[in-house]
Amino acid sequence: MKGDDVIVFLHIQKTGGTTFGRHLVQNVRLEVPCDCRPGQKKCTCYRPNRRETWLFSRFSTGWSCGLHADWTELTNCVPGVLDRRDPAALRTPRKFYYITLLRDPVSRYLSEWRHVQRGATWKTSLHMCDGRTPTPEELPPCYEGTDWSGCTLQEFMDCPYNLANNRQVRMLADLSLVGCYNLSFIPEGKRAQLLLESAKKNLRGMAFFGLTEFQRKTQYLFERTFNLKFIRPFMQYNSTRAGGVEVDEDTIRRIEELNDLDMQLYDYAKDLFQQRYQYKRQLERREQRLKSREERLLHRAKEALPREDAEEPGRVPTEDYMSHIIEKW
C-alpha cells in the first residue's frame, strides 16, 4: 500500500465481480479510504503517502483497458495506463498483483443468458490481442440489430460464436498463444488444450482469486493474502442456478458440453482454492499457538520474579511512638 504495488482486478462477467469490486473500494479498512462520492461511478483510491492509485479496477480506474478486459488485454495495457496516470512512479518498477473471481460454469452461463435477454451486449468490448481487434469474420455477432434481448436459452446455446461459451478460460488465457480470435490458426482440439493450460497457469500465478460460491472463504483468503481487513462481512446468497432459472437435466448437460473447458478449469480452481485456504488456516493456527506460548512464558516469567514486598515488609511503628501519638491526641 505504501510502496509501488498495484492490485489489478480482472472482472469476468456474471461471477459476482460487481459486488466484489464495490467491496474493494467501499469495504476495506484503509489508512486512507477510497474517496467515493455520490453520483460518481468511480472512486479515488490513493496511497497514504502520495496521490497514486494502488487499485486498478472498474470502480477505481474505470474500464481503462476496455470493457471487461481479459488477461491478454490487461497484461499488455495496464503498465502503460498507470505510467500515464502516475508519471512520477516511473522511477520505481511496479509489481502487479492480478486477482479475479470464478463461478460455477452452469450458473454463470445461465446468469449471462438472463443478462443478455434483458438487453446487455458488451458490444463495446475491444477484445484487443496482438495489437488489433478481431475482424467481423473472426468474431461474428450472434444477433442482428442493436441487441439480443428476448432470446431464448435454446437460441443462446445454438450460436456457435457466443462468447459466453468457456468465457472464464478465454478471459484467463494468453490468447496470443492460439492466434487470438483466428480459429483457423491451429486445429480446434489443440487450441482448446492450449487455452485451458494457459488459463490454469495464469490462475496459479495470480496473487489471489475467489469463488462466488464460497464468499466467506473468499473474504478470508483475500484478507490473509494482502494483510487487509474488510469492515463488513461478505454475504453468501445460496440460490438455485442463476436466480431461479428452471432447467432440465438435458439442458444442464448441454450447457456443460458448451462450457467443457470452463468445467475443467473450475474443478482445478476449486482444488487450488481449497489448498490456498487450508494453507492460510494452518499458518494462522501456527501463529496463534506461538502467540499463546509466548504469553504463557511471559506469565511464568512474571510469576517467578522475586517479590520485593515480601522481602522488605513495611516499617511497623514502635510502641513508644504509638504511645506518644496517643498522649498528644
Automatic annotation (TrEMBL):
It comes from Marmota marmota marmota (Alpine marmot). Belongs to the sulfotransferase 6 family. One of its GO terms (biological process) is neuron development. 6-O-sulfation enzyme which catalyzes the transfer of sulfate from 3'-phosphoadenosine 5'-phosphosulfate (PAPS) to position 6 of the N-sulfoglucosamine residue (GlcNS) of heparan sulfate. It catalyses: alpha-D-glucosaminyl-[heparan sulfate](n) + 3'-phosphoadenylyl sulfate = 6-sulfo-alpha-D-glucosaminyl-[heparan sulfate](n) + adenosine 3',5'-bisphosphate + H(+). InterPro entries: Heparan_SO4-6-sulfoTrfase (IPR010635), P-loop_NTPase (IPR027417), Sulfotransferase (IPR005331). One of its GO terms (molecular function) is heparan sulfate 6-sulfotransferase activity. This is Heparan-sulfate 6-O-sulfotransferase. The lineage of its organism: Eukaryota, Metazoa, Chordata, Craniata, Vertebrata. GO terms for cellular component: Golgi apparatus; membrane. Its EC number is 2.8.2.-. It is found in: Membrane. The gene is HS6ST1. It is a single-pass type II membrane protein. SUPFAM superfamilies: P-loop containing nucleoside triphosphate hydrolases (SSF52540). Keywords: Glycoprotein, Membrane, Signal-anchor, Transferase, Transmembrane, Transmembrane helix.
